[in-house]
Amino acid sequence: MAAWARAVRGLLLDISGVLYDSGGEGGGVPIPGSAEAVRRIKASGLKLRFCTNEAQATREKFVKKLQGLGFDISVDEVTAPAPAACRLLKERGLRPHLLVHDDLVPEFADIDKTNPNCVVIGDAAENFSYANLNEAFRVLIGLEKPVLISLGKGRYYKETDGLKLDVGAYMKALEYACDVQAEVVGKPAKAFFESALAEMGVPPEQAIMIGDDIVSDVGGAQQCGMRGVQVRTGKYRPSDENHPQVKPDAYVNNLAEAVDTILSQM
């Protein structure tokens, strides 16, 4: 009996690496069985949130891409860092200097960006040039109380041409240079998972996070009191199973296998 799959009311699913393998600009290939697994979850009556650190496109554009790949998903089912960052900026009266992907900029359309008093960093891809990083550094170092907000903390992610550095590496560079601690609004921040749970109306002990990132997905969920399951797709590597700090509640070969096990316990 799979004890990890019992007494579940809600599922949180990472997207890239769990639903599909990213194919870079405009691409992507669904992982076999994942679209059907999503349909089965919804038909079962379980609550569902799609949790992503996607920061190279607006949620609308990202969801449209997933719908084109055959997934039953809507914008209001997605928990993502950019909207959370915008709420934080407005609440605290912060005016950001943006170091983000060009396609994400529309998410910040109604945010005052004049005379910046903080820096927001996301997965900027090719925008992570020396000149752009140095500009962000100059904004931070020039502030009496520097504020650095990061749309994630990932070390790397996977595309069809291999692994690529994620925002966490560049975030750490600015932290070191400016002697500042970044505020992370994406995974693995506890507030990110708490927001997704609140949107589902499910307590952490009755929820499972399924992801391919052992630290951001599994570790972040477990720190919030949820169960964390790692799929052997996406960025998963065999060495993850010997991680010194994070021990998933279970490993599964893919999302379809996880859903099979969970639904069999209902």
UniProtKB/TrEMBL annotation:
Signal peptide range: 1-20
Catalytic activity: diphosphate + H2O = 2 phosphate + H(+)
GO molecular function, one term: inorganic diphosphate phosphatase activity
Domain of life: Eukaryota
Enzyme type, top EC level: hydrolase
Localization, UniProt: Cytoplasm; Nucleus
GO cellular component terms listed in the entry, alphabetical order: cytosol; nucleus
Record-linked Pfam families: Hydrolase_6 (PF13344), Hydrolase_like (PF13242)
Keywords linked to the UniProt accession: Cytoplasm, Hydrolase, Magnesium, Metal-binding, Nucleus, Signal
Xref: Gene3D superfamilies: HAD superfamily/HAD-like
Protein EC: 3.6.1.1
UniProt cross-references to InterPro entries, sorted A to Z: HAD-like_sf, HAD-SF_hydro_IIA, HAD_sf, LHPP/HDHD2
Names of the cofactor(s): Mg(2+)
Protein family (similarity comment): Belongs to the HAD-like hydrolase superfamily.
Function in brief: Phosphatase that hydrolyzes imidodiphosphate, 3-phosphohistidine and 6-phospholysine. Has broad substrate specificity and can also hydrolyze inorganic diphosphate, but with lower efficiency.
NCBIfam families, alphabetized: HAD-SF-IIA (TIGR01460), HAD-SF-IIA-hyp3 (TIGR01458)
Name of the featured protein: Phospholysine phosphohistidine inorganic pyrophosphate phosphatase
Taxonomic lineage from the root: Eukaryota, Metazoa, Chordata, Craniata, Vertebrata
Gene that this polypeptide is encoded by: LHPP
